[in-house]
């Protein structure tokens, strides 16, 4: 039993998906893990991500939750407001969600404690072939390319994944990257920046997440870092990307364009956006792709944004990458032998357990965006009636799926690692090789 622990696993990419996979595998006893990352170090964009409770459970098991827990900011209320006049459309008690945030650095620090994990920065990596065992090619920044053999390759190489293209090409299918037509600004204001504006200070000191919604765009904001920082992000049509090459995902935005995008929003939102220093506006293009026919080719599997990029409206992208990691660690560590066909079966179980759930969330995030961004008309009236009913009845469907009780239950109430263990046990009883 547990022959899986002797596997040599190569991970491509040291984003959240790659780091969480490396850590989860090491914690499950797998003792040879090589992580290749094209970047020179972990200089991540952005300050942190929201940590939903479903990823908390997994991070706890991986022993890197403590440092994060100390930074918790508890949000009790969600307020949905009409962008034009700040009128409250709905107000939802969501005290059961404790918003915490962390950066991939906590995962990296935990990985560095594990002897099993070796990091190779400045090293681009891709798949060369995978029959019967995967062969990968590493191209160091300043050196000659070399090939290596692994038992398993996990491609956590992000939305632009080259391994995904490779797998799909081999299978002779394509899944196009689709343009969501949306992009996002991410902004953090400090207490000092907001200090002279009582209305803003009140927002910073609240236990509230606020969403201002308007046609084709919205702004979501809440206090983080023990209320020393107000975290704002937007979604809006990506017209400023029109001229950018299709490979571009982030761009230095113009403040003028940003203000122009939200010129119909109420004064407090405009004042907040106006506080962003010139030259510090960063705009993200939000890309997704159609569901893939498979996440697995032989002993190679896709992880994270490489296989399920999700619009940020549910704040679940990173959480889903961490669920991938937790499930992969369970199924691989339980393998009774190291034959490629057993590994492939374990990876297929990973795909079976993760694909439908991740894709459901991809769809829900997109649906939520559509509902939030409705323009005037019958549909919007219907939506606003639902928002109002939530205040009156304290229950019912929420058009903002991030706040919908049923969706929350589905996301938070599922222990994917436990399910993976049960599923793997069942498979082992029948015989996996
Ligand atoms: C505006 C915005 C807001 C978001 N907010 C949230 C949120 O609040 N909560 C949340 O859970 N998620 C959020 N997300 C999503 C989240 O950031 C992603 O889902 C998550 O980071 C994906 O991690 P990943 O490891 O799969 O991919 P990535 O983070 O893209 O990592 C891929 C890594 O692979 C490396 N790489 C690529 N190709 C190669 C190669 N050939 N060789 C070696 N290395 C390679 C890259 O350099 C990179 O480091 C947000 C996303 C956006 C755009
Ligand atoms: C990556 O390469 C850069 C430039 O050569 C170098 O400064 C950096 O130290 C390298 N990173 C690592 C982790 O070796
Ligand atoms: C800030 O808000 C954006 C949008 O909700 C989110 O993606 C990001 O993770 C948040 N950052 C923190 C630190 O919560
Ligand atoms: C958070 O801020 C409050 C009020 O300023 C302070 O009393 C508390 O110690 C802070 N907590 C942490 C963990 O920094």
From TrEMBL:
The keyword Transmembrane helix applies. The chain crosses the membrane at residues 6-26. Keywords: FAD, Flavoprotein, Membrane, Monooxygenase, Oxidoreductase, Transmembrane, Transmembrane helix. This is FAD-binding domain-containing protein. SUPFAM superfamilies: FAD-linked reductases, C-terminal domain, FAD/NAD(P)-binding domain. Residues 8-364 form the FAD-binding domain. The keyword Membrane applies. GO terms for molecular function: FAD binding; monooxygenase activity. It comes from the Eukaryota. Belongs to the paxM FAD-dependent monooxygenase family.
